[in-house]
Design goal:
With about 120 residues, this protein is of the alpha+beta class. The protein has two helices and seven strands. It starts with 13 loop residues before the first strand and ends with a strand. Strands 1-7-3-4-5 form a five-stranded mixed beta sheet, covered by helices on one side. The chain has a two-stranded antiparallel ribbon with strand order 2-6. A hairpin with a 2-residue loop joins strand 4 and strand 5 (about 90-100).
Length: about 120
């Protein structure tokens, strides 16, 4: 129910930033990361950015996942809300979701995608 498609097509400019790029050098909560991004004029992405970006980002470097800065969604049968993540591992390119428990902490190397806002 929380995954709602935008009714009218629109272009969204995106930016990829590490937690370190946002000024955090230690493990940091998602709420702190999101608050810092918003204070810099960025916005959370609509959930559909995850699937669309996966279709477009065919040259994603191998290795660390790319997290979509979005409002976490409840998934039927899941213990925690989740956000989309893009990965490029041995199995190839994938779109996945990532658990976001309230005590989750992200390191400076973790990378998020945010919208540049309106």
């Amino acid at each position: 129910d929380e995954f709602v498609i935008i009714k009218n097509e629109e272009s969204i400019s995106l930016v990829r930033l590490s937690v370190g790029d946002l000024g955090f050098n230690d493990l940091t909560t998602q709420d702190e990361i999101y608050a810092k991004a918003v204070s810099l004029g960025l916005a959370l992405c609509p959930p559909e950015v995850g699937p669309h970006l996966r279709l477009l980002y065919n040259d994603q470097p191998f290795g660390p996942m790319l997290l979509i800065g979005m409002k976490p969604m409840s998934i039927l049968g899941g213990d925690y809300p989740r956000i989309f993540s893009l990965r490029h591992y041995y199995g190839g390119l994938s779109l996945d979701t990532c658990d976001i428990p309230s005590d989750m902490r992200w390191g400076p190397e973790n990378r998020f995608v945010f919208s540049l806002g309106k």
